[in-house]
Amino acid sequence: MVKRLYKSRKDKKLCGVCGGLAEYLMCDPTLIRLATVLLALCFGGGLFAYIVAAIVVPYEPAPESVLE
């Protein structure tokens, strides 16, 4: 199975980028959110990267419901 980066539907605060990245990297989403804020405050790159990811990265596919 190919591992793909998606925005999270279940663990999102703003757009789901940090939650999706945390799922992809298998780490705590809080760490990703803190790193994004620190990058945004120190270099401004975190905000730019977040906006680009929010536009480019698709949402994870919705789970298919089982209809009987």
Would you kindly provide a written description of the structure presented here, covering whatever features stand out?
It is a single chain. The protein is built from three helices and no strands. With about 70 residues, the chain is mainly alpha-helical. The protein has a domain of about 40 residues. Helix 1 packs across helix 2 and helix 2 crosses helix 3. The radius of gyration is 13 Å and the shape is elongated. The N and C termini lie far apart (about 30 Å). The mean pLDDT is about 80.
In short:
The chain is mainly α and 68 residues long. It contains three helices and no strands.
For the secondary structure, the number of strands is 0
- Write the H/E string, N to C: HHH
List segments where confidence is low: pLDDT < 50 over at least 5 consecutive residues.
none
Q: Structural class of the secondary structure composition?
A: mainly alpha
> Sheet with the most strands?
none
**What is the terminal separation in angstroms?**
28 Å
Topology:
Layout: H1 17-25, H2 29-42, H3 45-56
Helix pairs in contact: 1-2, 2-3
